[in-house]
């Protein structure tokens, strides 16, 4: 991939080999996957993947089910070590857990025995923050995600959207430079999902974190992102194309989807990925038949 070059709006760009990072102009990216491969025994989940997330950039990865999207996210988090290649965080090779990253999972990771406020400040407590200071900051973050006055509720007393807001506050309260998100809104109903997507965009605009976002929803990816990267069907997943999303910001995700440019981008990206989706579907059908 050629860093520092902007393709024409919406154009497909095929990733090229990543060279020496020092040869590229500008500051180092927040995340750099340099020829990353991940193997589980004889199975190759990801093969020679090269991609980056710039500082303050919102990048989404899309692709068929089982194509290795979450595997790449776990590599970025330091939860999974590449079999080959390297993952760099702001120009430094990652060793162990990525201390610069916060991770928002697909499933709720809230502790059911703790209140919303107690869940939000969990990371601060483990970091040794004094309790009163942690609670003060926790209440500030609950207010930022629209949950002021709900700090004493337990997870079972909250809706799915409220729990996601708590999880978002829990992730951002420690001020990570990078936010990793694995289909965080997929279990929500359509209306709540739109509200949460707009909530995320408002927070991203304010704090300008570097975001790597995994989703199956192409509309969601286009609505939120600066760039969308397409992965091939597994096994041996690798990036096959990327698109720069030139939709104006700030965005309302419901309104932006009605614009001609959004529709144009949707068709361009779908044309680039539908063959991979079909490959994955046919492979799964063969497995069912065996």
UniProtKB/TrEMBL annotation:
It comes from Xanthobacter flavus. This is ABC transporter ATP-binding protein. It holds the Pfam family ABC_tran. Belongs to the ABC transporter superfamily. Residues 31-258 form the ABC transporter domain. The keyword NAD does not apply. Keywords: ATP-binding, Nucleotide-binding, Transport. InterPro entries: AAA+_ATPase (IPR003593), ABC_transporter-like_ATP-bd (IPR003439), ABC_transporter-like_CS (IPR017871), ABC_transporter_ATP-bind (IPR050166), P-loop_NTPase (IPR027417).
């Amino acid at each position: 991939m050629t860093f520092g070059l902007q393709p024409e709006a919406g154009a497909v760009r095929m990733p090229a080999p990543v060279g020496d990072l020092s040869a590229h102009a500008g500051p180092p990216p927040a995340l750099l996957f340099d020829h990353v491969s991940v193997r589980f025994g004889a199975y190759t989940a990801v093969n020679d993947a090269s991609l980056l997330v710039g500082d303050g950039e919102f990048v989404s990865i899309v692709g068929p089910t089982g194509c290795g999207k979450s595997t790449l996210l776990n590599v970025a988090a330091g939860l999974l070590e590449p079999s080959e290649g390297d993952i760099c965080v702001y120009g430094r090779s990652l060793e162990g857990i990525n201390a610069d990253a916060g991770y928002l999972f697909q499933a709720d990771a809230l502790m059911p025995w703790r209140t919303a406020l107690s869940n939000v400040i969990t990371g601060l407590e483990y970091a040794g923050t004094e309790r009163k200071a942690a609670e003060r900051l926790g209440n500030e973050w609950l207010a930022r995600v629209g949950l002021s006055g709900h700090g004493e509720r337990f997870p079972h007393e909250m809706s799915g959207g409220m729990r996601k807001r708590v999880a978002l506050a829990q992730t951002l309260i420690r001020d990570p430079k990078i936010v990793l998100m694995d289909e965080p809104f997929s279990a929500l109903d359509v209306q709540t999902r739109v509200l949460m997507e707009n909530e995320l965009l408002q927070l991203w605009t304010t704090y300008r974190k570097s975001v790597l976002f995994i989703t199956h929803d192409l509309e969601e990816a286009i609505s939120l992102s600066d760039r969308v990267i397409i992965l091939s069907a597994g096994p041996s997943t690798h990036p096959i194309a990327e698109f720069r999303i030139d939709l104006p910001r700030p965005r309302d995700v419901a309104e932006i989807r009605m614009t001609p440019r959004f529709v144009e981008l949707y068709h361009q990206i779908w044309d680039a990925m539908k063959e991979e989706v079909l490959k994955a579907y046919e492979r799964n059908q063969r497995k069912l038949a065996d």
